[in-house]
Structures are given as structure tokens and as C-alpha cells.
Known about the structure:
Layout: H1 5-12, H2 14-24, E1 30-32, H3 35-47, E2 57-59, E3 83-88, H4 98-107, E4 114-119, H5 125-134, E5 141-144, H6 149-156, E6 161-164, H7 173-180, E7 185-188, H8 193-196, E8 204-206, H9 211-222, H10 225-242, H11 245-260
Parallel strand pairs: 1-2, 3-4, 3-6, 4-5, 6-7, 7-8
Helix pairs in contact: 1-2, 4-9, 7-10
Amino acid sequence: MAGLRWYEDARASRALGRRYRRAFGSVDLVNYISQGLQGMTARSAAALGWEGPPGPALVADIGSSSPFGRRLPYTARGDDGLFHAAMVGRFSRYQKRQDILIDAMAALPSDAPVRLTLIGEGERRSEMEARVAALGLGERVRFSGFVDQASLWNTLSKQQILCHCADYEGLGKTVIEAMALGVPPMVSDVPPLSDVVADGRTGFVVKENAPEAWKEALVAVAADPDRMRQVSQNAVAYCAAQYDPDRNVIAFEEAFRALLR
């Protein structure tokens, strides 16, 4: 389990809801990629009137295969002298909130050196492009479609910060990948993002998912290069300790063997 797409589908379609419920009732093990997601799944199942997903459960994430420490030493500005932020995610009609980041960019002072790249595809992309045009943000906000994994890591490695603005999240794999690359993440204050990211140490947690709060957070980090360099190093160390796939795979192997006994 990596997210709540099943819940959104089940709410929209009774037929899909029945299929998901049968699936939940027919498995021997559920792998939740975070403790926060396990709780959200149970609450979502209860909201649908279900008894909930089965046990036992393995709460673990395999980790990130991106190369740890690729961005060290951290650079507080791009080659163009600007502070570059990116968000990676689907332009969906639920969960992801690129609109909040766009409005935050519109609220920035005219001389703020912050630029934003929105990476991904989805049903709301054209709507977000229209929003950027209407706000006159063509020079501050750019769009990049879906990219392959190697290209994504290359793009992330050139950013000063990764923004992950969401109403809820399973884990946010790009958050882990950015940390592994030494790019500090800035995330919404929702679990498990706020569990993974230690505010001011391995990244930044925006307490209110609103444009003004995101604007203030971006202005603050862009003005503090020494702090950003330290957070970058902390993020790499944390990710290497918690999300090394060569070590984490052992927990998965043990769980799978237990099912066969």
C-alpha cells in the first residue's frame, strides 16, 4: 500500500469498491510503506463501512535506489544565481496541491530569486498552466511533463529544494529520493511526511497548507544558505540510515519467508 487511490476510486464507483474490498479480504500480508499510511488506510476503510484491511501487516519501505550524497557539497543557488524549487507529482483532482504552490509564487516579492518547476502529468495540468498564465507567472513557474527515473534524479540534483505540497500522502517517494540526493525537502504538515522530515534538521515542515505559509517558508530558506547546506547533509545521513534498499530488503525477505512456513 503506497497511497489512497483505492479509497478515491471506491468512493467514486461502487463496482470498484467491491473489487477493492474483495482484494483486501484475499491477501495474506499487507505492506504499508509507512505507519501513517497504515492508520490512514484503516480510517478510510472504516469511512466506507468496511471492517478494514487484513493482517498481518509489514510496515516498511524498501528505500531509495538513488545515489546517496550525489548533491554534496550542497549549492545554495543555481548556476544562474537563482533559488530553484521543484514539485514532482500527478496533477490530480485530489491530494496533490500544485495550486497552493502556484499561489505562493504569486505572493512572493517581485525581487525574490525563487523559481518553481512542476514535474508530472495529470488531469489538472492544463488548469494549472492556465492559472500560471492568468497570474503572470510565466517567468517564475515552468512545467515539465513526465520524465524517466534517471532524468528525474538529474533534475532533482539541480534543485535547491523539493516541495511536496499535499493534503495527504502515503510516503512521497520523491521526498526520499531528494533527501538521498542531498536536496532538502519542504513538505506539508501531514503524516507520514511530517514523521519522515524533521523540521529544520532533515528538511522543513510547513504547518499550514496555504499559499501564505508556503511563501513565507520559501523566502526563509532561500535567505539562509548556511542552514540549507547543513540540512542537506543531515538529509543524506538520515536517508542512508533509514532507506538503504540493500539493508531494508532483508525485512521483506523475512516477512515473505514467514508466509510460506
